[in-house]
Write a structure and sequence with these properties.
By secondary structure, this protein is an alpha/beta fold. It contains 17 helices and 17 strands. The protein folds into 3 domains: about 55 residues, Electron transport complex subunit B, putative Fe-S cluster (3-methyladenine DNA Glycosylase II, Chain A, domain 3); about 240 residues, Alpha-Beta Barrel (TIM Barrel); about 120 residues, Rossmann fold, CATH 3.40.50. Helix content is about 40%, strand content about 15%. The strands form 5 sheets. The protein has an 8-stranded parallel β-sheet. Strands 13-15-14 form a 3-stranded mixed β-sheet, sandwiched between helices.
Length: about 450
Amino acid sequence: MPTAMEIYKLLPKKNCGECKFPTCLAFAMQLANQKVALEACPYVSPEAKAALEESGAPPIRLMTFGTGDMAVKVGDETQLFRHDKTFYNPTVIGLIADDSSGSQGIKDGVALVKSLSFERVGQNIRVNSIAIRHSTGDPKEFLEGVKHASSEGLPMVLMTEDPGLMGETSVAWPKRPLLYRATPANFDAMIEVAKRSSCPLVIGGAATLDELSQLSERAKKAGVTDLVLEPVQGTCAQLLESMTVVRRAAVKKHFRPLGYPTISVLGSSDLDKGRATIGVAKYSSIVLMDELSRGFVFPLMVLRQNIFTDPQVPIQVKPGLYKVGEPNEKSPVMFTTNFSLTYFTVRADIEKSKMPAWLLVIDTEGQSVMTAFAAGKLTPESVTEAIEKEKVKDVSKRNEIVIPGMVSRMSGKLNELSGMKVIVGSRESSGIPKMIKSFSG
């Protein structure tokens, strides 16, 4: 974002007050702090407006491909390091289905991608995309595979450097696929396909980053601005260097020709797996691979989840009353906080006991038991309120509640407020299986 003085130089300097601020400088200061919209000034010139919108845009352009609930966003990043603020759009992981195995092979690839998902700490994480590549196969098989993938709704990458064949994939264009790719050899023709389809375009095949930036400038001047860059990558070290240089140039230097999302297209070797891991950790917006075994891709998705989780916002589960197993009115009731790690640890330890139970999750704004207790987020009053809201006494007739041993000090007050018998449980959740077996009936 430009400074207040840089903005002020582009304003009309009328000091008319129609923007609700006494002077243009005051208005510029509010603009610099993103507290007012540029449209509040009725006299700003089109040239100044264009300049300010350009300078105020994020250093890496936001780009979306796919449609509906499954659409994915890449780019729009503002930091080099996650701890400086946060990263926003997780790396898209995709499988490449090659038409050399025929349309059935592509269909099998689509089915595999749809199966590669699982739940972790309350979040569903999955492989995001399918890439359909034309290589040595029959172009008809490629087009048939594209048609099938389009009908399945997955975000797609269409991979052919033949502009004519890419132009025949129009059945997929309403699904907004990513077109791979424009190179120095086919640049003008592929730009025309991107303009006709209104789909985002990968630019690659450049020998250097300088050449790549020149190609992105040409694409922008031709009217194609939804771009993804493919720098030269090679070894793990070269990938790390290329992606870091692109991110640093965009974020620190505000070098617009490299201010786009990036892509890494990889094989299936051990080297490629190493490069995929580096790509997720260091700035590849999209990682496509020829093979995605569960033994590799599941840990890779966990790495991605850890990197792209906002460090300033705890992962939370929804407060409420949860069943563990098939509890009935004679089953015990326990409570914990809505910090995901705490919830899933407690739940797992209850499940180990093989005894059904009710688990009441208290809203502590994502804090753990002791942190919430010390901060006043976990109190006898908040627990009693949750008991009443979730009608705990209606689902369990024991009129008992088990509390974490670490907050035993609240037992007396909680008994007084809730009218329930308070049982102090184990200090650590690992003690739950032994404790819960003492409950009978």
